[in-house]
């Protein structure tokens, strides 16, 4: 069964006589539409792309959640194909048949779980195929998994353009996976700098009773609590911070927003250290922009990253950022805007946090520089224009064949 959610039904649209040629259709093929950095970037792209340039549908190999309701553009259908766990040969037939019905001009697959969907897209006669690499998970942190990279190379002749969200991933695709460099385009994510903005004056109050007084320094992180994000690293660093720096015990507070398998582990670490009164783990939240304004310092303790949307959101919110020096993080966090630390190293992370406890003035300086950096280099408009340039280069708007 194919579940569809969105605008008017396909049958109704096909029955409507078209007075003018509709804009080209892009079918975005992903594993699942839910809370996540890649998914957030896709929704931002659709919401901010001029509707007269391209139309969109989203094909979820598994399913979608209420995150789908963040799409503001009318008429964007979202299909759920309910792929079975593991090998599911039937998914190739489902994707081919659906694409034959939709007849998109471009198929844009994203990340490893969807890259082989270039094959049914080719079989369905889709003229142009784009693949995006947004980051690697724990199964291939170093990017040297031979099985996965062999698959990437096998399908590469069917892909007209690759989009990477960081220079780090661009280099990896070209030099490790061996994708021709002239096929690869690096495009940074953009952030909504109107929605994510600094607090007016003092730090905003958090919706946690008795948490975050004016003299506190509130460290925070946002993200799915899973191994690749390594929030346990941050929990251990916070324990190390208050144990090694006595002044931090009275002033430091920790917010960890998100849900997932590591939430229980983080609580166990913090409670065992007697820090339950200094931390707030509210689970998944929809008010991230407001919560950012209630933090002083943002921390991203990941083991690997592509380009982190939450780093960009934190910088747009006027927060300094402490991040692990992995993936694309060093492309975002520079000396003027925050601190970089090694991954899986709680003592070094604690030392970085201690710098802001010892020098609160550094919070304001790094935060202001981060906001300026976002405004100058990571706008939503710049991201959309770069994606449009890639799509237009395929020849749809002129009727030419892709090079």
Describe it.
The chain is of the alpha/beta class and 403 residues long. It folds into 2 domains: 3-190 and 380-393, 3-Layer(aba) Sandwich (Rossmann fold); 217-377, Glycogen Phosphorylase B (Rossmann fold, 3-Layer(aba) Sandwich), CATH 3.40.50. The chain is 38% helix and 16% strand. It contains 16 helices and 14 strands. It has helices at residues 10-15, 37-48, 90-102, 112-115, 118-123, 146-155, 167-177, 231-244, 246-251, 262-272, 288-292, 309-316, 329-332, 346-358, 360-377, 380-393, and strands at 3-5, 25-30, 55-60, 77-80, 106-110, 128-133, 161-164, 184-186, 217-222, 252-257, 279-283, 297-300, 321-324, 338-341. An 8-stranded mixed sheet has the order 1-4-3-2-5-6-7-8, with helices on both faces. Helix 7 (167-177) links the parallel strand 7 and strand 8. Helix 8 packs parallel to helix 10 (262-272) and helix 12 (309-316) crosses helix 15 (360-377). The model is unreliable at 8-18 (pLDDT under 50).
CATH fold field value of the largest domain: Rossmann fold
Instruction: Tell me the structural class.
Output: alpha/beta
Biggest sheet record: 8 strands, mixed
CATH level 1 class label of the largest domain: Alpha Beta
Q: Ranges with pLDDT <50 over ≥5 residues?
A: 8-18
Q: From the alpha-carbon coordinates, what is the Rg to the nearest angstrom?
A: 22 Å
Question: Which strand order spans the largest sheet, edge to edge or round the barrel?
Answer: 1-4-3-2-5-6-7-8
Task: List SSEs in N-to-C order.
Answer: EHEHEEHEHHEHEHEEHHEHEHEHEHEHHH
Strand content: 15-25%
Please state the second-level CATH architecture of the largest domain. 3-Layer(aba) Sandwich
CATH-assigned homologous superfamily of the largest domain = Glycogen Phosphorylase B
Rounded mean pLDDT score: 91
The end-to-end span amounts to: 37 Å
Strand tally, please? 14
Number of structural units classed as domains: 2
Helix content: 25-40%
By DSSP (H or I, 4+ residues per run), the number of helices equals 16
Instruction: State the shape.
Output: elongated
């Amino acid at each position: 069964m194919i579940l569809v959610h969105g605008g008017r039904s396909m049958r109704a649209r096909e029955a409507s006589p078209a007075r003018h040629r509709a804009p080209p259709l892009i079918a975005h093929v992903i594993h699942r539409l839910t809370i996540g950095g890649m998914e957030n970037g896709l929704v931002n792209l659709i919401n901010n792309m001029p509707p007269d340039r391209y139309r969109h549908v989203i094909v979820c190999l598994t399913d979608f959640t209420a995150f789908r309701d963040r799409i503001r553009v009318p008429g964007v259908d979202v299909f759920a194909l309910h792929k079975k766990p593991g090998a599911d040969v039937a998914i190739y037939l489902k994707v081919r048949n659906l694409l034959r019905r939709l007849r998109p001009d471009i198929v844009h697959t994203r990340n490893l779980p969807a890259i082989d969907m270039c094959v049914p897209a080719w079989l369905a006669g889709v003229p142009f195929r784009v693949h995006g690499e947004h980051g690697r998970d724990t199964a291939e942190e170093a990017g040297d998994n031979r099985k996965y990279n062999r698959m990437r190379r096998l399908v590469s002749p069917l892909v007209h353009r690759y989009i990477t969200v960081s220079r780090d991933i661009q280099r990896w695709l070209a030099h490790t996976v061996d994708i021709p460099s002239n096929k690869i385009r690096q495009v940074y994510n953009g952030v909504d700098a109107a929605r994510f903005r600094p607090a007016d004056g003092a730090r905003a109050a958090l919706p946690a009773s008795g948490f975050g007084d004016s003299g506190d320094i509130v460290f925070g992180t946002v993200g799915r609590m899973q191994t690749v994000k390594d929030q346990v690293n941050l929990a251990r660093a916070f324990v190390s911070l208050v144990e090694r720096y006595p002044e931090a015990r009275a002033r430091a507070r920790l917010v960890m927003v998100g849900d997932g398998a590591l939430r229980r582990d983080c609580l166990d670490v913090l409670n065992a250290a007697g820090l339950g009164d200094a931390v707030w783990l509210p689970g998944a939240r929809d008010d991230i922009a407001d919560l950012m304004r209630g933090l002083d310092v943002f921390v991203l303790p990941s083991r690997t990253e592509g380009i982190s949307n939450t780093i960009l959101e934190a910088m747009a919110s006027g927060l300094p950022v402490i991040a692990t020096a992995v993936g694309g993080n060093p492309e975002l966090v520079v000396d003027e805007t925050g601190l970089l630390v090694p991954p899986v190293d709680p003592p070094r992370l604690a030392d970085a946090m201690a710098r802001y406890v010892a020098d609160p003035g550094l919070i304001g300086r790094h935060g202001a520089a981060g906001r300026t950096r976002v405004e100058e280099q990571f706008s939503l408009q710049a991201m959309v224009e770069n994606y449009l340039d890639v799509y237009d280069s395929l020849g749809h708007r002129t009727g030419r064949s892709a090079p």
